[in-house]
Every structure is written in structure tokens, then in C-alpha cells.
Backbone:
């Protein structure tokens, strides 16, 4: 499982950070998934291995422009490239209105269909062959969600000794059982895959959260998750000065939460544009890192644009490239 | 008078060319003017000396997304930066609907007012202290305009000998006359600025055209203009293969027109993303240049992103930086 940050700035882009977007895949870039789509996301994608032609679904956390204004351009560019595959858009219903209004007022049309799915539906659940996705309501100025991705269809190992012992000989039924399918034998017996296969590892689980001032809302979802990607717009000192109105989290808040729920890997993102990443300048992004480290003993990462992380099958998180 | 290309690609961005946008100023970046605003225009501006805080007006040639999808992000970013100055948006009326729909469906608001001016009004005319602007209807799949910028308030030279000869002595009235204002003297005489000042040079005139398959529509406007910025989406061979539907111009078409009207400076832009600018790759942007050169003997330029041109007071056009 890999994910690449397409933007790590809050509100407005900077010279080194675009506004929010994250590309996710299970094992290679076909298919892949996009979480949020700030302006310029299609531009960022041109510098990655991800193509809008292989995009399976877009998950939008909330309606703010720094998470949505890249949608019209990305969708119409995919059309100009000749996409025909339908595309799922999991988002608040206003996003559908925004897209339709923009298409209708720009003489645009799409060569493929959009399948809108309401992210705020109480029974929200999405899945394909690679992932099942649930979400968690967060606390922000507008309704906002965290998406939890759980990998599906893990490789099963056949319990060959048990199969032979019960008189089930090698053949097509073994293949079905290994795929997770139950099998009706010629002798009338119904054989359950779960009884004759073994899952040698845990399904990997990743949470990508939207804007949120209450990390504790993720306590339940985080319990069995291996990575949390969460906003950390400011340090606590700046958050105190700004006041509660924007409803963002400080580095300290997120770090304390991650420590409390014993989260193994925490990736912070969505930094206020006041933070610089160059060698000089105050306030500096290292202040955010220093604050988080004080309160969290797990593996801490501060995301940068184009940085790619791999969540290995052994559940370790490895940064693959340094980003910008 | 200077202008900087913020995007020179048609339809979709490439790694080296953004979609359309052009920044223009009279003498320094305060105030400045934007012609078209494709997605990512605010990002491009971060790499120039232009700030959204000093932007005086946005001129939109037509409603297509590669000329408009950067508006929501640019406008809301200006708001987040605290802009309070009203902003003129000269555009087809659908652009107003697009902006309102996006703002209403993204929990956005602006800290300043937008003043929408219909670019398709038959009597369109706009001016401020620096420029007067007219437009010309072009031929494209949707209504589209070229904007002609003419500098205003040229520096006048006082005809001092004539003033003294007519008994008008140095004083505040000389200052008013030099500014172009007529003056009522104490003795009751009304003195006209035009009678006692001289304009030592011609007002500079620049046309920035939108998408257009009929350059000849600009014949009248081009007659006294010093620079034409015009799309040249393909070479003639590609245009023939694509067919007339997209309603774009070939390099040959624009070059023939510029030669015919004896235009001194022609800057081509809005190149199909099929053209590469690197050392290898076919088709190559140099094919567009070669074709235009065959049919035009004036000063020919092919725009690149971030390239800045200065139209000097002596009416020569000088590229100031190489762009990307």
C-alpha cells in the first residue's frame, strides 16, 4: 500500500506546498484513489506515476475550496484525454452541485459518467476489489470526514494437510478456496474457505482525515489502524493566538491523541502557509515537528509534497522518496 | 508596458506549460491586470512579482475551463490574504454564475466586492488611469473576445515658448496643463491642455486575443497596434487533420494575417499539449515556429511560461526573461 502527498498546505498554496490532495494505491498505480482535490492537483499528478485514466474514485473530506477546487480541471482533463471508465466521487452533496454548475457554465462535458456517493450518509460504506472504505465524522466548520481504507482480499494460504485429511484432493476447488470462495463439492459437501485457508497477515489499515479540531473522534477507528494522516495546521502557541474559530488541530493535540491510542505511525500534513520549509524564516516547519515529538513516541512524519510512503505487509511505514 | 505569460498550453496543462493566463502592467506591478485565469494561475503568480493584492481587473476572453478554472482559487486566496479593494471582472455573464455557484457550494466568502462587467456588451469599454480597453468579437465554439489595451495619460511636454508668448507664466496652471487638464485662468481665459502641450510619442497598444479561428476579425483593431498575442494551437498540417471543429488557429493562419496587416510584433501562445519543448520528442514546438516564420517577416515570438516582454516607449518589443 502506497500513498503520495500531492499537497500539504492549508488554505492557500505556497511555492513549495500545494493545497490538499493525496494519491493512494494498493500495489501499483492501477487502479488508484484520490483523497481531496485542491486546485492544481492535476498539475501535481503530472509529476507522479498516477494518471487520471486509472483513477478509480475520489474521496472528498469536506467542501472547502482548498480540498475541492481542483475537481473541475481534473475531471475535464480526464475527458480531454478520452477517459470512458465511470468515476466514483464520494463527497458531500454540495460537491455535486459545484461540479455541475462549473460544467454547465464553461461549455464543458465529460466523456465518462460520474457516480456521486454521499459521504455524509449515515450508513456510508464503499468497496472495490482492493479496499473497503468507511468514514468517521470529524469536527470542523463544515461537515467533514476521515476515510479509513482497509485492504481486501488478502492472499490466503491453503491448509493442505487438513484438505487431504478430509478427502479434498488438489483441483479447481483448491483455487476457489484460496480466493476466499466457498465451494460445493460433487459429493454434496459445502466447503468453507475460512475453514481450509489461513490469512498469514493482518489487513493494512490507513486513515486519511480531513480538517478537524477534535482528534479524539478518531479513537475508535484508530484502534486497529496502522497509519493516521491528520492535519496539524499550527503549533499550539499559534493555535491559541488564532483562537478556536478555524477549527483546526495543533501539532500537540494530534500528537497527544496518537500517543494515547498507541498509534504506530502518524503523518502530519495541512500546514499553515506561515510555516516555511527552507533554511531560514520564522515560523519554521521544524517547530511543528518539535512540538509533535514532545508528545508522541511513535513513528512521526511531516509530509512534504510528492513524498511517497509505503505501508509494508509487516505494517511498517517506509518513506520512499524525499518529496520537495 | 510589460506582460508575463502565466500559462501557454491549450486545454490541459503540461509539465512545462500551464493553461492560459497573462499578467500585464503599465509601469511596475501596482496595479496590474490579468487576462484569463486557467487553473493554477494563483500558483504561477507565486513565482512572479505580481500579487493578488494589487490586481486591478481580470479580463476573461471566454468561458472555457482552461481560461477560467483558476478564478475560484485566486479570488478566495486574495480574500484569505485580507484583500479589501473591489475587483473588476470583465467576462461573459456565465463566469459570474460559475463564481457564485462555487462560492456558495464551498462555504467560501470574499472580503472584498466583485464588480462584474459583461465583456459581450455591444458598447464594451473599460478604463482606469493607466489603460483604456476595448474588445473585438472573435470566432470560436463559444463567444470569445480579444482585448485591446491602449495606454492613457501619456507624459505631456509643455510648450513653454507658446505659454510665455501668450502671457501664461509658470505656476500651478502649468502643472495642470501638463497633466492634461484644461485650466481657467484668473483673467477668465480657458486654456486647453492640448493647445499648450505636446505628446512626444505614440500611445502603446497591445491586443491579447482569446481562442479564435479567424484572425482576420482583428484586422481593424490591429492596424494601430504594436503587439498581438494570439493563439496558435497547431501547425497547419495538424489543424487539417483535426478538422475545423475546435475552431482554433494554425501558426500559418496567424502569421499570414500578421504579415498582411503589417503587424510589427507577434507573440504566439496557447499551444496544443502535443507539442514538446524539450530537446527530443515529436511533434516539437519548433515546428510551430518554423511554420510561422515562413509567412511572417515581423518580430515573431513563441511564448513560454514566466516569460516577460516589455513594450518600450519606442514601440520595440523586448523579451526580458527566458521563461521556462
Residues:
Amino acid at each position: 500500500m502506497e500513498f503520495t502527498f500531492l499537497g500539504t498546505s492549508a488554505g492557500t498554496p505556497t511555492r513549495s506546498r500545494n493545497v490538499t490532495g493525496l494519491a493512494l494505491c494498493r500495489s501499483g498505480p492501477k487502479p488508484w484513489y484520490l483523497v481531496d482535490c485542491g486546485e492544481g492537483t492535476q498539475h501535481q499528478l503530472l509529476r507522479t506515476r498516477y494518471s487520471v485514466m486509472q483513477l478509480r474514485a475520489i474521496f472528498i473530506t469536506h467542501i472547502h475550496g482548498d480540498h475541492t477546487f481542483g475537481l473541475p480541471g481534473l475531471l475535464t482533463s480526464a475527458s480531454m484525454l478520452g477517459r470512458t471508465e465511470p468515476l466514483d466521487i464520494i463527497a458531500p452533496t454540495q460537491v455535486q452541485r459545484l461540479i455541475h454548475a462549473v460544467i454547465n457554465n464553461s461549455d464543458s462535458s465529460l466523456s465518462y459518467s460520474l457516480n456521486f456517493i454521499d459521504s455524509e450518509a449515515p450508513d456510508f460504506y464503499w468497496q472495490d476489489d482492493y479496499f473497503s472504505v468507511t468514514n468517521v465524522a470529524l469536527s470542523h466548520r463544515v461537515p467533514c470526514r476521515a476515510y479509513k481504507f482497509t485492504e481486501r482480499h488478502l492472499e490466503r494460504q491453503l491448509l493442505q494437510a487438513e484438505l487431504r485429511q478430509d478427502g479434498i484432493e488438489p483441483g479447481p476447488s483448491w483455487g476457489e478456496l484460496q480466493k476466499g470462495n466457498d465451494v460445493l463439492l460433487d459429493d454434496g459437501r459445502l466447503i468453507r474457505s475460512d475453514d481450509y485457508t489461513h490469512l498469514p497477515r493482518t489487513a493494512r489499515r490507513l486513515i486519511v482525515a480531513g480538517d478537524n479540531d477534535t482528534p479524539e473522534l478518531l479513537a475508535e477507528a484508530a484502534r486497529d489502524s496502522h497509519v493516521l494522516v491528520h492535519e496539524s495546521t499550527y503549533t499550539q502557541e499559534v493555535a491559541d493566538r488564532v483562537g478556536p474559530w478555524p477549527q483546526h488541530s495543533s501539532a500537540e493535540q494530534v500528537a497527544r491523541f496518537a500517543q494515547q491510542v498507541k498509534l504506530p505511525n502518524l503523518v502530519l500534513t495541512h500546514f499553515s502557509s506561515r510555516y516555511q520549509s527552507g533554511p531560514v524564516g520564522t515560523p519554521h516547519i521544524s517547530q511543528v515537528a518539535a512540538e509533535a515529538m514532545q508528545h508522541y513516541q511513535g513513528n512521526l512524519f511531516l509530509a512534504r509534497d510528492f513524498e511517497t510512503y509505503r505501508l509494508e505487509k509487516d505494517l511498517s511505514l517506509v518513506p520512499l522518496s524525499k518529496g520537495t
Remarks:
- Chain B touches chain A at residues 11-15, 18-19, 39-40, 42-43, 46-47, 63-65, 68-70, 72-73, 76-77, 80-81, 94-95, 97-98, 101-102, 105-108, 141-142 (CB under 8 Å).
- Residues 157-198 of chain B form one domain.
- Residues 219 and 261 of chain B are 7 Å apart (CA to CA).
- The first helix of chain B runs from residue 41 to 45.
